[in-house]
Structure formats: C-alpha cells, structure tokens
Write a structure and sequence with these properties.
By secondary structure, the chain is of the alpha+beta class. It has 4 helices and 18 strands. The protein starts with 11 loop residues before the first strand and ends with a strand. Bound molecules: manganese (II) ion.
Length: about 230
C-alpha cells in the first residue's frame, strides 16, 4: 500500500553476538522501583507501580564496545542520569500472570532513563504530564541486548554507574520493589503488550546531574556494558 510520506525506519537495538537488530515497538518505564531511590524522591512505603512512556525513537542504540554520543538536551539546567535494567519483550499479551511473565521476555540490556529533572519537578508541582521531562529526543540510550537464555542470573545481578570513573549509582536488581515478572503482570493489565516493547524497570539511588563532556559507564552483571558521552 502506498504511503503519502515514506514511513520512518523502526528504532532498533543491537543484539550481542548477532548482526540482526531488535525493532522497538513501545518504551514503558517504571517510576520509583528501588526503596532508597523512592526515598530520595520523597516517597514513603510500598505503593503500586506507576508507569510513564517514552517514544520509541527516543532510543540511542549503542553497539558492543562502542561509546554512544548523547546530545545535552534543550530547556534544562539539571539533566540527570537514571541507570536501569531494560527488559525487551519477545511475546506480547494482556493479563500476563506473574508465574509465566518471564516466558514473554526476549532479552535484557543496560539503559539510561535520562531525565530533565528541573522540568520533572515543575511538572510534579503543577500536576502536569512528565512527557517533556522524560520523553524528549535521545532520552533513552540503551546498550546491546543479551538474550534471556544467556542472562540467567539477572534477578540478582549487581547494577552500577560511574561518571568519569567515579561511582554514582550502585545496587542490585534484587533490591527492586517490584520484580520484573511483577512489572510485566502489572503493565499487561493496563496495556496490550507487544513483541518489541521495552520496559525500563526503575533506577537505584544516586541519581544526579551530568554535563557536556561527561562519560557515563553503566554496568549490570552478565550484560554488555553501556558507555555514552554527553555531547
Ligand atoms: Mn527511571
């Protein structure tokens, strides 16, 4: 069928040990999923997970061994890193049960939920949407995907971020308030999940600002690391 304008190529991620790419459908993100980060953002106690989204083409794919280039965004003076485990869905579905949720996962990657923190604080204060704070261009740098079968220990993996070699964030995936299967179950009650969907699973404590020239290195045990430079 002819289109009046040529459709854009899908956003995609590289895959470890393969020339094939993973086409991105939607990007879901979980807020406040590590207790210590929830506290640093002013929350108390366990609440139901909440979600926001980024556009698929906010992805900055970074290949194995490469350092990605991420442009410092407009409209902010407080541009924050949030290091997160990214889950890539291989099968979709609605009302997915916790017990079978991991069967829907294709793989995992290291990602950064980059945030215009000043605009997010203003949006929270005024009860406005977070899109401008979370869903801006190039707000989702993501490293290569590791297939789930090769990432068996992911539920207890260490997760750490350095900026210019100094440690900023350090935790373990086991410290998540809502586990990956629980997140998938919750999400699939609100949206029909599809192959190609990505889920940012929340960030541990230690979020902070970066500036042009900073080198960010994100690490999760068992996954290909993510390196980006702020341009
Ligand atoms: Mn986040």
């Amino acid at each position: 069928m002819p289109y009046v304008l040529p459709p854009a190529a899908p956003a995609s991620l590289s895959v470890c040990g393969s020339d094939q790419r993973f086409a991105v459908h939607r990007i879901y993100c979980v807020g406040r999923n590590y207790a210590e980060h929830a506290r640093e953002m002013g929350s108390t106690g366990r609440e139901a997970p909440f979600f926001f989204m980024k556009p698929a083409d906010a992805v900055v794919p970074v290949a194995a061994g490469q350092t990605g280039s991420v442009p410092y965004p407009s409209l902010t003076n407080n541009y924050h890193h949030e290091l997160e485990l990214v889950v890539a869905m291989g099968r979709g579905g609605a009302d997915i049960a916790v017990d079978s949720a991991l069967e829907h996962v294709w793989g995992y990657a290291v990602g950064l939920d980059m945030t215009r923190r000043d605009l997010q604080s203003e949006a929270k204060q005024k009860g406005r949407p977070w899109s401008i704070a979370k869903g801006f261009d190039a707000s989702a740098p993501i490293g290569p995907l590791t297939p789930a079968a090769q990432a068996q220990g992911i539920a207890r993996a260490g997760i750490a971020l350095t900026v210019n070699g100094s440690e900023r964030q350090k935790s373990t995936i086991a410290d998540m308030i809502w586990s990956v299967p629980e997140i998938i179950a919750h999400l699939s009650r609100a949206w029909l999940l599809a192959p190609g969907d990505l889920i940012f699973t929340g960030t541990p404590a230690g979020v902070g600002a970066v500036v042009r020239g900073d080198l960010l290195a994100g690490h999760i045990d068992g996954l290909e690391p993510l390196r980006v430079k702020i341009a």
